[in-house]
Design goal:
Helices cover 50% and strands 11% of the residues. It has helices at 7-15, 34-39, 42-57, 71-83, and strands at residues 2-4, 20-23, 63-65. It is globular, with a radius of gyration of 13 Å.
């Protein structure tokens, strides 16, 4: 699995045959610090999420999360999919 906050990173993961997870609200694509993100009004946070998710979706990640703090349920989902024989 490769998680990344850039389209280039998602492309790398897909080319390597990995499950890919885009990170929308932290990192390069969002361009805000954790402190700035924490103080954003919900409407601005949602607009940022939509903008960055749209940019990441162009690179076809298997899923998109807000921050790496949201990664554990995705790992569990991917493990369940792999247990059923699914591959990226």
């Amino acid at each position: 699995m490769k998680e990344d906050d850039t389209g280039v990173g998602i492309d790398e993961g897909r080319e390597a045959g990995c499950w890919t997870v885009g990170v929308a609200l932290s990192g390069n694509e969002a361009g805000v610090t954790p402190e700035e993100l924490a103080t954003l009004p919900e409407t601005e946070r949602e607009a940022l999420r939509e903008k960055t998710s749209a940019a990441l979706r162009r690179h076809r990640p298997h899923c998109i999360i807000d921050t790496v703090a949201d990664l554990l349920p995705i790992i569990e989902e991917i493990e369940a999919r792999m247990a059923k024989g699914e591959r990226p």
